[in-house]
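Quick one: DUF554 family protein from Psychrilyobacter piezotolerans, structure tokens please.
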Amino acid sequence: MLGTIVNTATIVAGAAVGSFLNKGIEERYKERTIQGMGFVAMAIGISNISKGMTLIDNPLIFILSIGIGAVLGEWINLDKKIDLISKKYEGSKNPVQGIVIGVVLFCVGALSIVGPIESAIRGDNTMLYANAVLDGITSVILSINYGISIALVGLILFLWQGSIYLGASAMQDLVTPELLNQLTILGGIFILATGINILGITKIKILNFLPALLIPFTAKFFGII
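--- reply ---
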């Protein structure tokens, strides 16, 4: 669970730094740092996609996963629901409301789901380390507005990712290399999309693609992979 521990630690550390900087920092420094994280996310995403593509036996699965997942996600419209929660508390300085926003940003995402699975099955913490960097920067920015209470989100994230890690470990015999490679590609696509969003190139509704993660498991259940 090293990746989850690191992810948790960066949120707590980011909250401490942000609280110290609660008088604010110049916008240009925030902007440049965030852009840097966008480039990092894109690089890691491309790396994961490349790694997964060289290992999978059936590329049709991840293609169908994205297509079917997009349709299901758009129907559920999770992105809009989460956006409404964030906007509900926008501009508020209430620490509890800051925690709600933090949970939404840190826990509801592909990296917080696929990362612990990869860590448990393959011992690969790359996705969780990428998530840790992004969450750390976000934690600094949130805690400037909401204070040290954002550190509590680190505990929530630890419990969330820890549960996924333990669940994946318990089902390790059922998770085949092909299934994991399909998830690696999907995770890489989501990381790449996150980087694109951070840089403001376009606005991809990543949350609406999350159902794509269910398709490889469905294919495994029916013996397709």
